């Protein structure tokens, strides 16, 4: 309640140069809904869904435009990407290929319900098993500033129609 979602949100869809940006999922979380000033204190959270390590380097969608931003993936994919994150290769890739993207990014992974992220890290469950899944934060996202206005991002969410 009180959180607003949109999927496949296009930002700058008619960009004259370069590729338009698309965010897999965008969420707007107002501080509360009792006054205009509280709504204006709201934050945007962007989620980019990636299925494998190659997907990260494909050149598609690492558009982190919110105050908080998350990569959503499997534990196996996170484990494969962890070394690139530690040695800076991943962050360099974002900086070079998506210069408008924020650097405050966290990671969420799918874990079976009633399982901890630490247990799943030690022994990943195949994603195609018949279990109920939940998302767990394995790398928290620190709050940062966004470059786009609230009006522009809300309009883009509304325009996505999802």
Secondary structure layout plus pairing:
Blueprint: E1 4-11, E2 21-29, H1 36-40, E3 43-49, H2 53-56, E4 68-74, H3 75-87, H4 89-97, E5 106-112, H5 117-122, E6 133-139, H6 150-160
Parallel strand pairs: 3-4, 4-5
Antiparallel strand pairs: 1-2, 2-3, 5-6
Quick rundown:
With 162 residues, the chain is of the alpha/beta class.
Polypeptide structure, described:
- By secondary structure, this protein is α/β, with parallel strands linked by helices.
- The chain contains six helices and six strands, in the order ββαβαβααβαβα.
- It has a six-stranded mixed sheet.
- The longest helix has 13 residues, at 75-87.
- The protein has helices at residues 36-40, 53-56, 75-87, 89-97, 117-122, 150-160; strands spanning 4-11, 21-29, 43-49, 68-74, 106-112, 133-139.
- The model has no long low-confidence stretch (mean pLDDT 87).
- The radius of gyration is 16 Å and the shape is globular.
- The chain is 30% helix and 28% strand.
Order of helices and strands: EEHEHEHHEHEH
Mean pLDDT across residues: 87
Total beta-strand segments:
6
- Are there runs of 5+ residues with pLDDT below 50, and where? none
| Helix fraction bin | 25-40%
Major sheet attributes: 6 strands, mixed
What is the number of helical segments per DSSP (H or I, 4+ residues)? 6
Radius of gyration: 16 Å
User: Strand arrangement, largest sheet?
Assistant: 1-2-3-4-5-6
User: Any idea what the shape is?
Assistant: globular
Strand composition percent: 25-35%
> Termini, distance in Å?
17 Å
- Structural class, from secondary structure content? alpha/beta
């Amino acid at each position: 309640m009180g959180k607003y979602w949109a999927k496949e949100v296009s930002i700058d869809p008619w960009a004259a140069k370069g590729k338009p940006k698309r965010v897999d999922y965008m969420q707007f979380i107002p501080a509360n809904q009792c006054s205009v000033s509280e709504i204006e204190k709201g934050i945007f959270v962007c989620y980019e869904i990636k299925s494998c390590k190659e997907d990260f380097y494909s050149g598609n969608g690492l558009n982190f435009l919110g105050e908080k931003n998350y990569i959503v993936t499997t534990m196996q994919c996170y484990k494969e990407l962890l070394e690139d994150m530690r040695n800076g290769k991943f962050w360099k890739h974002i900086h070079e290929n998506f210069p408008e993207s924020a650097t405050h990014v966290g990671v969420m992974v799918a874990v079976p319900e009633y399982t901890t992220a630490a247990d799943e890290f030690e022994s990943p469950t195949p994603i195609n098993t018949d279990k109920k899944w939940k998302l767990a934060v394995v790398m928290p996202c620190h709050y940062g500033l966004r470059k786009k206005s609230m009006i522009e991002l809300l309009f883009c969410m509304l325009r996505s129609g999802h």
